[in-house]
Design a protein that fits this description.
56% of the residues lie in helices and 11% in strands. With 247 residues, the chain is an alpha+beta fold. The protein has a four-stranded mixed beta sheet, sandwiched between helices.
Length: 247
């Protein structure tokens, strides 16, 4: 940002920053509107639930206001609260829809890990097969978490190998492993982030940096490449597997 006299931003720089913020805000609103339109077409309950929340909470606030003779004070508060609840309902149903579409597709777990919030260090595809089974490594305050997606039968040996290889370099640092799926002992895709956040905190950020440095040597070199995000359901895998074999 250009500076004027005394090191303060110039008028032109302030105007440019304001215009950038305005454009970013406009883009976010456009994306939200597009997401709403797409979800509304697929989810017939979305509008009734959102309208019901808005109207219901507003009416309750107004009635309470009548009882205490403050109806015109509580009415706008009810509208704001109802709008917030309606927006939360919209966000939750969009998220549920996205996870439902991604569930079971190759690369879905990698996509979720890429969107984790918090102090997580994610390395995708530290181990993989030509059938697109993959193990992803996550370093966080709990320690190391190996997240596997694909066929549970093939993943057990893949996980065991990666866990053994990792334990040689991290000492007594806790190592967790999880398989994404809907079977017994597996974690559903939609619950992956919740599973990670519920793990106990065992190390600090300094230790995380040390571990990440040690494990950098284990980065996949020329190994199978995982797709960036979930693959479309029913997509043909021959060309993908052919690319993997060439590597």
């Amino acid at each position: 940002m250009a500076a004027g006299k005394g090191g303060k931003p110039s008028k032109e720089a302030k105007a440019a920053a304001k215009a950038a913020r305005k454009q970013a805000s406009k883009e976010r609103r456009r994306q939200l509107w597009q997401a709403f339109q797409m979800q509304r077409k697929e989810d017939k309950l979305l509008l009734p639930l959102m309208i019901g929340a808005l109207v219901g909470i507003t009416v309750v606030a107004f009635v309470i206001g009548l009882l205490i003779h403050q109806q015109w004070v509580l009415l706008p508060l009810g509208l704001v609260a109802g709008g917030l609840v309606a927006f939360v309902i919209f966000g939750r149903r969009v998220q549920k829809s996205v996870y439902a579409k991604a569930d079971g597709q190759a690369g879905a777990a990698a996509w979720v890990l890429d969107n984790l919030q918090g102090k997580w260090r994610v390395t995708q595809g530290v181990a993989a097969t030509t059938q697109l089974d993959a193990v992803h490594r996550v370093i966080g305050l709990p320690g190391i978490v190996l997240v596997a997606e694909g066929s549970p039968t093939r993943l057990k040996s893949l996980l065991a190998q990666e866990k053994k290889k990792t334990s040689r370099l991290v000492g007594d640092t806790p190592i967790y492993d999880v398989i994404i799926g809907n079977g017994d002992g597996e974690v559903q895709l939609k619950n992956l982030q919740r599973y990670l956040t519920k793990l106990p905190r065992n190390i600090d950020v300094k230790r995380m940096d040390q571990i990440e440095s040690r494990l950098s040597a284990l980065a996949t070199r020329g190994g199978p490449a995982m797709p960036k995000g979930p693959l479309p359901a029913g997509a043909k895998m021959r060309s993908v597997q052919r690319t993997i074999r060439r590597r």
